[in-house]
């Protein structure tokens, strides 16, 4: 029940060859160099796409200019398949900043969902193991891992509440309906000093998780926070918050394992 991917076996992974961007910041993804790229700003010939190097400037038949570059991780990440509600980037930012995930970190994640959080963390951590109970989600996660070309991530078809068999983990991320049920198994998997992070959309989940964490002698509770990202519009001197945009995603609660 461990899915270890074999490399290289996918064509999917190479589906974005180039990114084109207009002066206004509108992006287009080139999936094939054997076809012209059609956009609302006219089309770009396949011959020009083939020849273009990172930093080249291309013109469409209507004269619109596009800059060309090779896709980097975040360009690809924005195009992954999403089925379950994926975690937004603003929340991933706080998880990484508060726990200091870096190239030495071993991370355990659950549930995988579409694998968005697991894949993002794999791009900065040493390795990630992600647990998921549903087969249909596991399929999506596998495709996303291949698409992003990640080699340091494993999927386990197991229940995070009862079936953790990993040890020596630096950071655990929980995005499951009843995270308090995972505390006992998380305590066994985490290193002393390791972080537990729970992401929940609603207040009763936060209360139950934090109360259980506080009662558990293996952990100390650090904090709960919500990230509110407000985007601004900047047009000449018309500079003000965008009139729409702030929605709710989830609350992040942080704890630390203190006992061996
Ligand atoms: N963080 C993910 C989204 C997770 S959605 C992302 O960014 O893409 C929550 C997932 O948890 C669902 O796919 C659900 O099937 C899974 N899940 C629920 N209970 C679980 C459990 N006990 N063990 C493992 N996975 C579980």
Polypeptide structure, described:
The chain has 260 residues and is α/β, with parallel strands linked by helices. Helix content is 24%, strand content 30%. The chain is built from seven helices and 16 strands. The chain has an eight-stranded mixed β-sheet, with helices on both faces. Strands 3-2-7-6 form a four-stranded antiparallel β-sheet, with no helix packed on it. It has a two-stranded antiparallel sheet with strand order 4-5. A hairpin with a 2-residue loop joins β14 and β15. It starts with a strand and ends with a strand. The relative contact order is 0.13. Residues 4-12 have low confidence and may be disordered. The protein binds S-adenosyl-L-homocysteine. S-adenosyl-L-homocysteine (SAH) is lined by residues 84, 86-87, 110-111, 113-117, 131-134, 137, 159-161, 175-177.
**Major sheet: arrangement of strands:** 1-10-9-8-11-12-16-13
Small-molecule binders here are: S-adenosyl-L-homocysteine
Content-based structural category:
alpha/beta
DSSP helical segment count? 7
Cα-based radius of gyration, to the nearest Å: 21 Å
Helix content: 10-25%
> How far apart are the first and last residues' alpha carbons, in Å?
28 Å
| DSSP, total strands | 16
Biggest β-sheet: count, sense, barrel? Answer: 8 strands, mixed
Helix and strand run? EEEEEHEEHHEHEHEEHEHEEEE
Assembly type: single chain
| Percent of residues in beta strands | 25-35%
Quick check: average pLDDT? 92
Form type? elongated
Low-confidence stretches: 4-12
